[in-house]
Each structure stands twice: as structure tokens, then as C-alpha cells.
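Before the break, one more example. Copy the sequence into your notebook; we will annotate it together after we see the structure.
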Amino acid sequence: MRTYPPRETVAALAAPMLLEAGCVAFDARNPFTHASGRVAPTYVDVRRAISFPRLRSRLMDLLAETVSREAGEGAFDVVAGGETAGIPFAAWVAERMTLPMAYVRKKPKGYGRNARIEGVVPEGSRVLLVEDLATDGGSKLSFAEAIREAGAECAHVGVVFAYGIFPRMEPRLADAGLRLHALCTWWDVLAAARAGGAFDGATLDAVEAYLRDPEGWTP
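Here is what the structure looks like once it is written out:
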């Protein structure tokens, strides 16, 4: 049986790659406003990784290995990406797992078959949902629901990055019958940033303060 690297090794490899690709930004003096309206000294854009062939290839190797280690080999029949950021990652993971690939729209396209799923997802098939990242899990629930409405099974979500600072995210997914598989979190990226000297100490201290209390953090 093939052996896969443990979670700690995967995180220690993936986090510096996100830093190298410029996917991560830290700025405590001029914090970022997220889509939720929350102000934070952190910002992540995993989609930048698609422009770095060597890094994206290794990240996708790690994601396929992580899912296989945690969910089991042969656990899936189809890999589905969530529109839009999950689509390229799902395609690369499907290639590595030699599985069919599909993608799920955020909403029905409004004409023709009015479908939310593009590609072939047979009834009863076991689908791995792939996205770039997980924040609070909301979009994962919607995509999984669409897959299930099509008659397939969806019990696992694979992402490159999970925030890892909102304690209700994984229980929320678990309540919906979804297990999350992620390469790294903000804590792993912070550790890599400290080890690599990518940012000054004061900025990293502010980031750590935010990670420990994201709801109460102020600039």
C-alpha cells in the first residue's frame, strides 16, 4: 500500500509555496476589508498559484495525496470543482487521480437545461468537491447540495487552504455530512513567514493577535 506524507509535513511544504507565489499578504497598518465586511491584517488569494507551474504542480500532488490519505484510496468516482476558483484545481486533481472531472455552478445558468453541474456526474457516484480555499464553509454547502440533488454522493471537500481560525466551520460542514481536507491554514502560513523572514516581526505579531481573536481584532 502506498504511504503518504503526514499532515504536518504537508503543511510545512504547502505554506511556503503560497508565500512564494504571492498568494498571501500581511499588512497591519493598512488592513484588508474582506467580503464579509471584516477588517483583517491578512489576505489570501490561492488563485495566484495557477500562474506558477512548478508550485501548482506540487500543491496538486499534495492535495491528491492528502485526500487519498484521509479519505482512502479509491474513495471517489468523480472530482467536481466549484465555480470559479475550484475549477482548475479540480481538473488537476482529477488528472492525478485518473478520474472524470465536472464542475458546479453557483446557480443554474438560466437557459437550456438550466443545469448547475457541467460534465457527467452519474447517479450514485461518489464525488470529491474541490475548491481553492475554505473560510466559513458556506459555498461548500451550496455546491454539495447541488451534487446531491443530482443524485450523487458528496461527503468530502478538498482545498489548498483553510482559514483554521473560525471554530464553527468544520462542525458546520460536519453537520451537513462533509469532511474537509486542507493542505494548510493561517497558522501554518504564519509559522512559515516567521521562519522565512518574509515580514517584519511587528507585522507578524499583529497577524498572530488577529488569528487568536479574529472577531475582536482592531488595527
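The mean pLDDT is 94. The domain at 7-211 is CATH 3.40.50.2020 (Rossmann fold). Try to locate both features in your own notes.
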